Amino acid sequence: MIYLDNSATTRAFEEAAQAVQDALRENYFNPSAAYGQAIAAQQQAQAVRKAVLNATGRAGEVIFTASGTEADNLAIQGAFTAAGCTGHYITTSVEHPAVLETMQALESRGARVDVLKVDRQGHLSPEALAQAVCEDTVLVSVMHVNNETGAVQDIGALAAAVKAKNPRVLFHSDGVQAFCRVMADQRDVDLYTVSGHKVHAGKGIAALAVRDLKRIRPVIYGGGQEQGYRSGTENMPGIAALGAALEQWALHGEAWRAGLGAMRDDLGARLQAGGGVLNSTSDGAPHIVSVAFAGIRAATLQQALADQDVLVSTGSACKSRGGARVSPVLLAQGIPQELAQSTIRISLSPLNMPREMEQAGDIICAAAARLKRFIRR
Amino acid sequence: MDSIILLRYGEIHLKGLNRPFFEHKLVQAIRVAARGFGRIEVEHGQGRFFISGYEPARQEELMAALCRVFGVHSVSPAAVVGSDMQEVRAAAVEVTKAEQGQGGSFKVEARRSNKHYPLNSMEIAADVGECVLDAMDNVRVNVHDPDFRVYVEVRAERAFIYTRILPGPGGMPLGSAGKAMLLLSGGIDSPVAGYMLMRRGVELEAVYFNSPPHTTERAHLKVKKLAEVLSSYGCPIRLHSVYFTEIQEAIYERCDGDYTVILMRRFMMRIAQRLAQEAECGCLLTGENLGQVASQTMQAITVTNAICDIPVFRPLIAYDKNEIVDKAQQIGTYDISIEPYEDCCTVFVPKHPVTKPRMKAVLIEERKLDIDALIERALEKSETTLIGLE
Question: Which residues have C-beta within 8 Å of that of residue A19, sequence separation ≥ 6?
């Protein structure tokens, strides 16, 4: 099998799996308890918070959540509640549903929401964003790396432009697809979402990095864990796994990022040679190749590849359960319908080997060539 | 006060000498539906069965299960007491208070199978009606158009009292009318067609035409889910998933594009008939509906029908789409059918399919294909799954 769907999820690192085993069987104590073992667990969680900050180049607080979606909700709903359930909110048309749907929910509760368009490369310009910022704007949410096309937003410049216009505005970025793979200037980024299962730490652990906790309110109430911002007993196996995975990224991250970029470029070139049209660009995320083979339905190509044990996805995994629908993100980026419905997403990880790009490239191009014979007349 | 379920059957009572056969099939179906409810007793009455022996707390659940059994006209939860009028009155009051506490106008309907009973039916009704009227403040009598009815049935040594009648699906017991091979796509119509024939007592096998990679594994899964819903009405279903890719591709590459759908349909019928004969199914069953799509015009159906030697039943032929949708929602297949995974019919559909195919032209197109070899290979790569219990 060649697994090329790492933006859907990744295989956990051996070290992360070990950490889960250890947290379930040996160090299984509730960090809120009073005895020494519990205190050790609490300290372990603190260390992982620090690792999250290091991996993102940030300072401030880290609130652990169960998913990136939950962290996005905490950022957006949390800011909305803190602002008195009113005000103006800005996002983009290419966001993940975790952001877009949450914004829509705010709108139904009385917020004003502006959804800004992006250009053909998937970029939002700092000028356009600043122009949309108002006196009563509460929060701007712009995703760091697009999960379907790999387009990278310059969140440092965007956040700076927002702050220059109105320093009270909170800047949030969904960094789930960027985490560990694309770095950014985080100085003006108030809230940043990351998730464990995209970086080989397993599912069920994610976090919201927060500069100033006073600017948000909790979404989940209860026993007051995570400084009261996310109640519920800490997911220590998840936290431990995230810590273990981040250790690996701290050691090898630089080399891995370079390796991913090289594999992406290699595979991209092979696919282009086989007639593929790339939606992703070389200034995009190093691990995502978005490619269309005109006329071939993405679901058909994806199934043909699955039959040969090459696993890719059509659009994002969250969307592809919906099957034949065309990705609204691709359309929003101005990709023509015909290419959008033929687009598959290939996403890489450090567990991929460079030689897999050659094999996968051959298999994908051969499948596309075969399926070209059966285009709907 | 004990409780039983009174189950009425519909058409079976019209049968003559073979009635015991149908009754036996219905009892079998009742026992299948009541699996997991303990060892139930089924006692024969006239045009009805009396069901007892289940856990009283699960009576509602069991009735809901029985209301899905084909051949069942209706079911009622009934109190069972001795046939003494004293007991009948008390039970009638208790049942009415419990089941019709909201009050309103009512009427008592009485019948007696014990013709030596001291009161006749009219007298029983009047007597019981008076007791209920006395016992409840919020009821009044209306014999013409009552809000609810209190039923009293006096038998030799027992009497049954009830006020609720829950409708069953009607039809005939499963397995009383043979077996059909259903052409099951992922669409809305074919599962409804399957249900309709099951309701007439027909057991099903199903055939699905799988065209990977043009159709995805999720489309296949969807068909399995549809078969599972159908099987929940009382019989396991063998699902034959036929590898159709090569046939579709051959038609696409070698034949006139406007004829692809009609040629495909003829292949499907050939294969379904072959499977039907192997599985001893007496007919093919499709969700075809006159004029719905190009392959379902009268001319097109004539051309696809021509290669079949066994009857092809098309129970939806005269239905409107919205009627089929309603039915699909009612039987629980609609939400699965509208999951957006393409079935094999939609991938290779030409922009202008022929709506009035001529047999001669179809035969000319078919001469371009090695039909027998294609079918052999399709069947070789097919798989059969048993869906549902047993």
Answer: A237, A240, A241, A243, A244
